[in-house]
């Protein structure tokens, strides 16, 4: 019996999602936990949260979203 290993796991890339650029880390891992394969995919999904982030209701919301959509 032979074991097969997937050597093409998540890849680390420079963080370019505008909401996350100055969040405290500069690299993100894709695919992410939400199965987005690229930063463009993740950014499109994150776009819906911009009004909520801009409202200032929670100072930790941006960090939470970035860690979920663009994990360090």
Task: List the keywords.
single chain; 72 residues; alpha+beta; two-stranded antiparallel sheet; 3 helices; globular
Task: Give a short overview.
This protein is α+β, with helices and mostly antiparallel strands and 72 residues long.
Strand residue percentage: 5-15%
Given as residue ranges, the uncertain stretches (5+ residues, pLDDT < 50) are none
Distance linking N and C termini: 36 Å
Helix percentage: 25-40%
How many helical stretches?
3
The chain-level mean pLDDT equals: 90
Shape: globular
Report on the structure:
The protein has 72 residues and is α+β, with helices and mostly antiparallel strands. It has three helices and two strands. The protein has a two-stranded antiparallel sheet. The model has no long low-confidence stretch (mean pLDDT 90).
Detail the topology: elements first, then pairings.
Blueprint: E1 11-14, E2 27-30, H1 39-46, H2 50-55, H3 61-69
């Amino acid at each position: 019996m032979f074991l097969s290993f997937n050597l093409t796991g998540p890849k680390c890339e420079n963080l370019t999602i505008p909401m996350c650029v100055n969040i405290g880390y500069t690299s993100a891992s894709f695919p992410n936990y939400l199965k987005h394969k690229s930063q463009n995919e993740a950014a499109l999904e994150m776009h819906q949260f911009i009004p909520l982030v801009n409202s200032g209701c929670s100072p930790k919301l941006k960090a939470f979203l970035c860690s979920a959509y663009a994990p360090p």
